[in-house]
Design goal:
- The protein is mainly α and 99 residues long.
- It is built from 5 helices and no strands.
- The longest helix has 28 residues.
C-alpha cells in the first residue's frame, strides 16, 4: 500500500482526492488499477461538480488577502478537474472509434 493511500483510507476529503488524482496523472505509466479509478471518478458528476466548485474558490479580486493554502487547494482541484476531463475526452474518443 502506498503512503498516500494509507493517509486517505478514512473519509477522504475532496482536496485529498484531488491531490491523489494529480499525483497519479503526473507520473506515467499509470497502472490499470489507477486508470480504472480515474475512469470511475470521471463519470461521477457529483464529484466533478465538487472539484469544479473548489477550484473556483480562488480570490482573484484581493490577492493580498488570499489565503495561500486556499489558493494551493483551489489549484490542486483545478488540476484534478482537468485531468478527469481529459480522461472523459479519451473515453469519448475511444467510444467514437477515434484514436
Amino acid at each position: 500500500m502506498k503512503l498516500y493511500e494509507f493517509m486517505n483510507m478514512g473519509n477522504p476529503t475532496i482536496i485529498g482526492q484531488a491531490r491523489k488524482i494529480e499525483r497519479i496523472w503526473k507520473f506515467t505509466p499509470i497502472s490499470q488499477k489507477d486508470k480504472n479509478w480515474l475512469i470511475r471518478l470521471s463519470k461521477d458528476e457529483a464529484f466533478i461538480g465538487k472539484l469544479y466548485w473548489h477550484s473556483r474558490q480562488m480570490n482573484h479580486r484581493a490577492p493580498a488577502q488570499t489565503d495561500f493554502q486556499l489558493l494551493t487547494d483551489a489549484g490542486t482541484c483545478a488540476s484534478a478537474y482537468l485531468a478527469l476531463s481529459e480522461v472523459q475526452r479519451q473515453l469519448e474518443r475511444r467510444a467514437a472509434g477515434i484514436h
